[in-house]
Amino acid sequence: MISEWLRMDGYYCTNNYKTDYQFKEPVTAWDESSPYAHWRNRNDNQPFFAVFNFTETHESGLFEPYGFREIETRHYHSGDRNYNWKNKGDAHANNRMAEAETPVHLSKDTKFNIPSYLPDTDLVRQDMWKLYNNIAEMDRQVGAVLKQLEDDGLLDNTIIFFYGDHGGPLPREKRLIYDSGLNTPMIIRFPKKMHAGTKDNQLISFVDFAPTLLSLTGKKPKSYMQGQAFLGAYKAKERYYIHAAADRFDAETDVIRAVRDKQFKYIRNYRPEQGYYLPITYRERIPTMQELLRLRDEGKLNEHQSQWFRENKPVEELFDCWVDPYELNNLAKNPEYQEKLKELSAEMDRWLSTVGDIPDLPEEDLIKKLWKGTDTQPKTAAPNISNQSGNISISCDTEGASIGYKIIKRGEEAPASWEVYQNVINLPEGATLLIKAHRIGYTASETIQIK
């Protein structure tokens, strides 16, 4: 994980607190990952990399009964371990304020522009109000964290990235490969407001974040990283295309790939016999989703709204995202756009080959490929240990494994976090050494203890 590279360079790395990685992280990932993780827990003058997740605008924030998540109040308390949110600290999404006690940040009479792929009904407008009320609360939470930076004298010595993790939370947004599901907000604040008010129009993808982070710390991005740095000492040449993929959504699956330049998007559907809409149980708790299904069943959706519920999909789709931002008018068979179709189709083939993506590969075969042809998740090899008069060297036969260790000094408690192994360890007399190796995608090794 990128945080390990930063930890090896002396950064104090924290995550507060969501960890939806789709894999089990190694113990070396963070100095702390919890609802109390904060840069204020680091050593004096230690550089830091701190991640704060603001989940108030998650799609679950549209569920009924409506109310802000109690755990989100943590952002106002700057890592104070004595603070506990209501209901005994339950972090579950269902631990919410009652609607009567939930702050109202904007008038319920606020008028909204409803996108044409959603019906303009009272229920949809209510969900839109909830969405923007959640955004207003999230904005206050972000402001609280920035105020903590300012109070610590760090605001003008810190690069701040603010971004979403996908498109909007309403139906036909999150999980879809249209811009409504892919396009995310991003704001970067540099020390002393450098470049304030400027807009960067280059094409940026989430795979660019890791190399950009390394570049900003003066480190060359790793050759195996798929993305490229868009800032810093190793800023790359602006790209012409970005790419996207969609496969599994909870219990439902599809196989879709996309490539986009600044104006056009090309989509390839590998399951054209399958409709776009998938009955995802979690999403169907959103009242707007329930409204869409009701109106669909009653035959009351218009052409734009009913497109999502088509029984099948075209193999290829092409959209002019400047003229048609909601991607409703497929140009793939339009004679005027055949050159653009060929260009983007060829770029998709190049990308799939470069990253080793085989869209038609069944999930069970993909897992076997990751697990070296077996049906059982591999286990990280036990660390190899050489102890020369208390000078301990460690290695692991599993390629790509992270090695973590803890030194427990005589008469003291074990440290809360694991250190990333880099160099020979000189074990103090009477101390105990704990060692663990873990490659992402494998199970971790057993913990080895040396006294």
Automatic annotation (TrEMBL):
Its EC number is 3.1.6.6. InterPro entries: Alkaline_phosphatase_core_sf, Sulfatase, Sulfatase_N. Keywords: Hydrolase. CDD domains: SGSH. It is an enzyme of class 3 (hydrolase). Residues 40-218 form the Sulfatase N-terminal domain. It comes from the Bacteria. The keyword Hydrolase applies. GO terms for molecular function: arylsulfatase activity; choline-sulfatase activity. Belongs to the sulfatase family. This is Choline-sulfatase.
